[in-house]
Amino acid sequence: MKKVIYPGTFDPVTNGHIDIVKRAIELFDEVVVTVAKNPTKTCLFTVEERVEMLSECFREFSNVTVDWFDGLVVEHAKQLGAIGIIRGLRAVSDFEYEFQMALMNRNLADDITTILLMPHAKYTYLNSTIIRNLAQFKGDVSEFVPQVVEQRLKEKFSY
Ligand code: ADP
User: Fold this and answer.
1) How is domain 3-156 classified at the CATH fold level?
2) pLDDT digits over 85-115, tens only?
3) Can you give the residue ranges of every domain in the chain?
4) What is the largest CA-CA distance in the chain?
5) What is the pLDDT of residue 78?
6) Closest Cα partner for 31 from 70, 71, 58?
7) Which segments of the chain have a pLDDT < 70?
8) Which of 10, 116, 155, 158 places its Cα 20 to 30 Å from the Cα of 26?
9) Could you tell which of 11, 20, 105 is best to mutate to test the pocket of ligand 1, judged by most ligand atoms within 8 Å of the CB?
10) What does the pLDDT read at residue 157?
């Protein structure tokens, strides 16, 4: 039973994140998508709202669960009995940060492996910040996020 975790801010979850989860479940038995509760980061959505949106997106996937964590990601992985950490790699610009994190996490826990997955090319320019900015100015986000997220963004920005 090979379980992995996919940690991130998911503020909010985009089709790029979903693409990564779908690739991960082809390789592993269970994926836990886990929202990082980071007190130093100001987010548009609360942790609870982000967990709710993710849960809705993966409602029909029996091998995907959603939770949240604070503290070290490797500690959370160990607590859940996960063997690895999934992260997404969109472009060379992501690489340095992801590489640093992977090596730091390996330093902290040698038995937890980081797996970097690349999304479909059409998602390589997509990130949550762009979506928040687009929605703030009432732009059409429907192509880039699941319906539940589009709805929540419309409620947040009243359009
Ligand atoms: P974090 O603050 O931890 O980077 P994010 O929610 O921005 O949280 O991203 C979580 C993970 O998903 C990261 O590994 C990031 O590179 C990846 N990711 C974000 N957007 C995409 C996308 N469009 N396609 C593939 N991976 C993505």
Assistant:
1) Rossmann fold (3.40.50)
2) 999 999 998 999 999 999 999 999 999 999 9
3) 3-156
4) 48
5) 98
6) 58
7) none
8) 10
9) 20
10) 95
